[in-house]
Write a structure and sequence with these properties.
The complex is a heterotrimer of chains A (about 260), B (about 325) and C (about 325). Chain A is an alpha/beta fold and about 260 residues long. Chain A has 9 helices and 12 strands. Chain B is built from 14 helices and no strands. In chain B, helix 4 runs antiparallel to helix 7. Chain C is mainly alpha-helical. Chain C has a single domain, classed as ABC transporter involved in vitamin B12 uptake, BtuC. The chains are: A alpha/beta (about 260), B mainly alpha (about 325), C mainly alpha (about 325). At the A-C interface, helix 2 and strand 6 of A face helix 9 and helix 10 of C.
Amino acid sequence: MTDDCEGLQARQLMLSYGRRRVIEDVSLAVEPGRLTIILGPNGCGKSTLLRAFAGQIRPDAGAVLLAGRPLRHTGARALARQVGFLPQAPLAPEGITVSALVRLGRHPHRGPLSAWSAADRVACDRALAATGMSGLSAAPLDALSGGQRQRAWIAMSLAQETPTLLLDEPTTYLDLAHQIEVLETLQAMTRQGRTVLAVLHDLHLAARYADRLILLHEGRLKAEGTPAEVLTAARVEDVFGLPVRILDDPETGRPLPIPRRRV
Amino acid sequence: MSPPRLALWLAGLAAACLLLALWSLGVGSLSLSPARVWAALVAETPSREALVITTVRAPRVMAALAVGAALASAGAIMQRILRNPLAEPGLLGINAGAAFAMVLTAVLTGTAPRGTLIPAAMAGAAAASVLVWALGSAGRRGATPLRLVLAGVIVASFLVSLTQALLIFNLAALDGTRLWTAGSLAGIQPQELASVLPWIAAGLLAALAALPGLEIMGLEDDAARGLGIDPARWRLIAAAIVVLLTGGAVALAGPLAFLGLIVPHAIRLASGAGFRALLPLCALGGAALTLAADTLPRALAGTDIPVGITLALIGAPIFLWLARRQGVPG
Amino acid sequence: MKRLLTGLACLAVALFLAIALGEQPIPPRAVMAALLYPDEAPVQHVFIVHTLRLPRAVLAALVGAALGVAGTITQAVMRNPLAEPGLLGINGGAALAALAIMLWLPGTSATLVPAAALAGALAAATAIYALSWRGGIGPQRVILIGLGCGAFMGAGTSFLSAFGEVTAVQRAMLWLSGSFSGSGWRAVLGVALTLAPLLALAWIFARVLDLLAMDEAVARGLGLRVQAARAAMVAIGALLCGASVAAAGPVGFIGLMAPHLARRITGPTHAALIPAAALAGALLLLLADVAGQNVIAPNAIPAGIMAALMGAPFFAWLMWKGRHDG
């Protein structure tokens, strides 16, 4: 990890949630152009770490750097043009349509008096197409299914046209088909050169789609690397308290953790 | 809240009510210490002091306790079923209905004694809440919190404006009702109290009986349905309990909005209680607070300041302190 | 765009009605004559139209628009559809200050009362904002603090109403109900100069309001400085409301209902919602003033009261009509 690292880095990061210390001395670099997934048991600090990367919370100690520069020296708007952030279960005002939501994603690129430009329109159209929501752009968000709503939010983040995208549990409450859809969309984004960092709690999906995994345990970095490097039976049992057998996924060749039967 | 802690809180508040009652019964032109009050009450032969206490002062003390308990509990229920911190019994149109009926009666009959105004006020409160309910529950999804609140605001705005219009043109009615409007327990007669107490008692009992259902109503409608509760029906039940509790209370003492709106928040901030504990705590806390507020100006300065004003003057700063201290999530 | 033009047309009709109706009704052609050719029209008509009715109507429309927009801002910042500018203590502070002046210094009304009202309103709003500040303000805390302060100020007002000299209280109630009697062009000019830039600012920041109404984390992720934006928008709303109260006394209801009405027509996006709320508020208050003056002539019902008397059944009808929309 060097100083001229292009993407997001954490350096000896210490984070608290309220009065509780949640992340202890975490240092890592997010590899640009790849899909990196943060994994760990509940309460290990995954969401807090992600929010720190998004510049939403200030570290107690250490720093988050973007292209070598600490986040706290970056203005809110400038940061919003580099890093997009989608929180878990976001709230939207009643009655808002998909297209109005996606248009809000252009906010970092527009000043208070700037008119709606061609670049804005193109970005929104592209975002809607990438998430398959073009046909539903006029629909109110409340009338959509869980999967469609999530894709609308992702479209908003895509319209932001940031090189890096952070998502907190983007697959919660979605059925399996929609979960796969979302993850394939995220994978497609990395193939276009974007960096995606997401928090997931599903081991199987994380192993299947991630280029790199970050495994957290009790606020510390337990392991980092490719899914094959990170997900060993011993480590899964240690972190999640679950004895597993690691098989090779017949579809993808990725590690497939199978919980052992209780004797 | 753990049972021992709840028992402690309940006992503490109940003791406070009792002590406040003894103190309050001793306040007045014939000043008695709480010990003497107790002695006079339990004495075999009724003394002159006991007579003053029971006929002149006891109605007012009991009214304060009953009204405080009723309005604070009703407020807790409203905030629960509407899931909105701004909710209070007045949203069902009760205060507005009572005020309008009272002023209308005063205008139509010249200045009427409180005796005829109380039944009118209760009828007005009930009628207004029926109207609010009818408007708010019409529709496919029935009485959702938002619809009920909007309906309540609509009906209340209308009645309040009508009342104001009447008062602007009728000086006598203004003079006769403005003390009530400020929220006052002065000059309560035993018959007036007796006409209102059964309703309040019924409401409190009903609220206790309905606790389990009301507790579940704090969840989103779908989650409540999953637990076997029909949200629309329970909102109706809750509204009926609120009207029972507050119709008479407001008719008797005026619109004491502070109790229903702020006491539940204050108790929750101070004790961290969940709903099941909150309801009885609100009842006792509201009773103690109202009695204290009604007695304090008389005890300290000999002046009779309407209880609604005192409640807000001493209660609001305490509430503000609590709201700031607790770091309510933004 | 079509709806905007319809709305403006309705406003024009309302203005026309406001000028034509009154103690001395003026037929439509005469109204046009007085407006367009003041030098040739009868002096009496010109006087009534230009000195009495037109300024009053314009003021009512301006104040209504300001209240509609202030309500929209408050509901966005508080993320609560029940919110209205009164939550910020504005009406309460204004009422208390004005009532005190009217009861303790009777006869000094004309210029002192509006000034006191404005001062009271802004003092209350500042106090509530400051008390809610704890590294920033959050909607939930502001609502609770606003309630507490409102109760406190209400106690003061209650006390004054219950024990003040009863005829003075009755006269004060008239002002406290929101009234436009005796408004001249100077008042209109002052109000217009204050309100116009504020309304324009609110519209320019429409997108900021969209973001404030959203999830806070999302808004921050999109580059919005949430605390600064909240403070700025609350200030704009408070000034809009404060200026309205100073001009006409506390008028409730419109700040709550105009945004709801507008939202039904335009949806929640503020670029369209703000002008719609302004129009809705202007229409509501203007029609209320016209009705209040003419319905039980020669007595006049204050516009604030009339707004609720007319508006409430109208919204009740809307709610009833839309009951199958779910």
